[in-house]
Design goal:
The protein is mainly alpha-helical. It has one domain: Up-down Bundle (Glycerol uptake facilitator protein), CATH 1.20.1080.10. It is built from nine helices and no strands. Helix 2 runs antiparallel to helix 7.
């Protein structure tokens, strides 16, 4: 059987992240443009469930090759505390960003007519400008959005990314109650973790919890004319730097509070 090699791993990470963004940004566009039913037929729950299943499919697609990091926060965390080679970290992150960019491009092709008609709203990334106002949930929804500070959004991303890593670690930890690898159900538990983060912690920042998921589509969105995506420093801190750091911290917490007390 042919060894996959680094090239095969990078292609799998690129393709897995592409699938993640194709479905993830796809559900945001679908909700925001509401093409099938009245705007009140779509809401935050639709987005949260859509992103959760996007993660499930993406993990199943790439999992057999790389374990489906599809997220620099996971890649960095695995290098910090799980013996993933540091030499692969930068290549993994780069292809994850490229895959996310290409996934956003595919969403653009699918929803182009609606996006152009709506003035190219931000369906690409999290944070300021990522809501549609009355295009998504109607006037009442727009008024209920509220605003959060850079610090609050960063705190939300910090805890959200740690919860993501706890879910990933527990799902594949055979010493814990994780699913046995041969059962192939780990991806579902990761998806449920993303759903829980979205429903419970996603409000202040839009729950990037994945630097590539945010930066790749953000670059694409700016190229096609979505305004305000790189205003200020928001784009750099809550959706990019915080998840990159907090994922690794999350692994330490798991190993401090759970790993030493699991059965041999």
């Amino acid at each position: 059987m042919k060894k996959k090699g680094l090239g095969g791993e990078l292609l799998a990470e690129l393709f897995g992240t592409f699938v993640l963004l194709l479905l993830g940004d796809g559900v945001v566009a679908n909700v925001g443009l509401a093409p099938r039913v009245a705007s009140n037929g779509y809401d935050w729950n639709t987005i949260a469930f859509g992103w959760a299943f996007a993660v499930v499919i993406a993990v199943y697609v790439a999992g057999g090759v790389t374990g489906a990091h599809i997220n620099p926060a996971v890649t960095i965390a695995m290098a910090v505390k799980r013996d993933f080679p540091w030499s692969k970290v930068i290549p993994y992150i780069l292809v994850q960003i490229v895959g996310a960019f290409l996934g956003a491009f595919a969403v653009y092709l699918i929803y182009r007519d609606g996006l152009v008609a709506a003035g190219m709203p931000n369906v690409w990334c999290t944070g300021p400008g990522s809501t549609f106002g009355n295009a998504a949930w109607g006037a009442a929804g727009a008024e209920a959005v509220g605003s959060y500070s850079l610090l609050t959004a960063s705190i939300a991303e910090f805890f959200g990314t740690m919860v993501l890593l706890w879910g990933v670690l527990a799902a594949f930890d055979d010493k814990n109650w994780g699913v046995q690898t041969k059962a192939n159900l780990g991806a579902l538990l990761v998806g449920f973790t993303v759903l829980a983060v979205g429903l419970s912690l996603g409000g202040p920042s839009g729950y990037s919890i994945n630097p590539a998921r945010d930066l790749g589509p953000r670059i694409f969105g700016a190229l096609v004319g979505t305004k305000g995506l790189f205003d200020g420093l928001y784009w750099l801190i809550p959706p990019f730097l915080v998840p990159a750091i907090s994922g690794a911290i999350g692994v330490y917490f798991y190993d401090w509070f759970i790993t030493p007390f699991l059965p041999e």
